[in-house]
Amino acid sequence: MSSTRESTESADRSFVVVASRLPVDRVEGPDGHPDWQTSPGGLVTALEPVMREAGGAWIGWSGDAGPAPGAFEADGLHLVGLGLSENEVRHFYEGFCNATLWPLYHDVIAPPQFHRRWWEAYVTVNRRFAQAAAEQAAPGATVWVHDYQLQLVPRMLREQRDDVRIGFFNHIPFPGYEIFAQLPWRRQVVEGLLGADLLGFQRRADATNFLRACRRSVGLTTRGSTVRVREPGGSREIQAAAFPISIDAKGLAEIARRDDVRKRSAQIREALGEPGLVLLGVDRLDYTKGILHRLRAYGELVAAGRLGPRPVLIQVASPSRERVEAYRTLRDEVEVMVGRINGEHGEVGYAPVHYLHQSYPREEMAALYLAADVMLVTPLRDGMNLVAKEYVACRNDENGALVLSEFTGAADELAGAFLVNPHDIEGMKDAIVRAANTGPAEARRRMRAMRKRVREHDVARWAASFLGTLSGDPVADQQAWEPEAS
Ligand code: GDG
After folding, report:
1. Residues lining ligand 1, judged by CB closer than 6 Å?
2. What is the C-alpha separation between 189 and 204, in angstroms, rounded?
3. Are the C-beta atoms of residues 446 and 416 closer than 8 Å to each other?
4. Eight-class DSSP state of 412
5. What is the mean pLDDT of residues 382-396?
6. Taking burial as the number of CB atoms within 10 A of a residue's CB, which of 350, 387, 412, 429 is the most buried?
7. Atom 27, ligand 1: which residue's CA is nearest?
8. How many C-beta neighbours within 10 Å does residue 190 have?
């Protein structure tokens, strides 16, 4: 439980994070009053040290419709909670963010919907975030804006405060121009982003796509990773480059090393009846994650007996965006398919799929990663995918195998994975069989290479590299710009 207290002090922060969500959840305190509990996300882990050192502020939405919680302190972090009305939750969050931008930016896996009212709400809410940032930032402050929900904030903030350094990081893919061009407000979005000094993307391909959108939708010229814009006060240069996000690899490896976690992992295998092969999927229940494709491949492998006797797939599908229709439909489809596989291939005392539509504490996740012989990460499109990196970080035993979709940012980094195209069911089946039958020496060689990468490129390095570049350091080696054919 966090220690929270309201804060009314006027703002003068040299470092400001602007993200759609606060790094805390509203919970009921011991006396029945509402309280806040820090949610241990990767972003807060990465930014906490910088926040503390700089006495920074974090601006975000609490996640509930209603009035703004305002400024308060939680666990020594200065948080500024903004409010969204019921209508704004519907039009901005569930609408424009989750039913327009999310599917559009993930290669239109689901059809994006374009509604003018949703766009208007997007503009209004972005303005509220920009206003709050302008109020919090000290002269010359660094402001780091996060993700697709807030693409207009950089320009709106710059219009009020041209003294601050503005960084923006996009956590999800930036689509190719033919797809991005569908957006009726493509020009406004590009111009909104160009209010920043530095734009960070997960992969080089995303940065390339963005630069192309600058040329095509706004008619700007780009040179390498640089875009030049003319403004009333003169011209300004903006950098767009790749900064692949990561995890707190050391912290997670420590959790996975704990006796209680290792014991729990053994218990999980025991509870499953000590199967010869345990496969694992961990995803938010989202149509980008390729859960149906994975289940189809697995079901066919079980039917053909290619995974040996009684294999088990544990599929954690944590609840997500349940008020958006496409997510409700997906849940039904997943549950029908799980039911079908278990119905056709299960027996009394044996179910081929253990489907868990729940969220778990980090320790339980680590125990699951340790219990899995083969990790299945098969998104149709994913900015990075942290689950793949978490699996690798937990495997202190240098064992286990990762089956990983080519369409994730993580595939650019994790060379020891068995890469798959999730649309190619036969190819995916063969890769799963290969992963399941890897000899110990090869498994170790692959896992070692992946662990080295994740250990050396952790989330602290990601944040330091982005913020260093924002403050003027040359782009670091691992993100060095290599122009791609376009
Ligand atoms: C977006 C981008 C990008 C899941 N269930 C539980 C749980 N999780 C945790 C995982 C992981 C995180 O949620 C999911 O992160 P992903 O990267 O896999 O995916 P998105 O949520 O779509 O995130 C993505 C990311 O932003 C960061 O930039 O990588 O591409 O789409 O950390 O472990 N954690 C716990 N219980 C659960 O039940 N504790």
Report:
1. 42, 171-172, 245, 282, 284, 316, 318, 359-362, 365, 382-387, 390
2. 20
3. yes
4. G
5. 97
6. 387
7. 171
8. 22
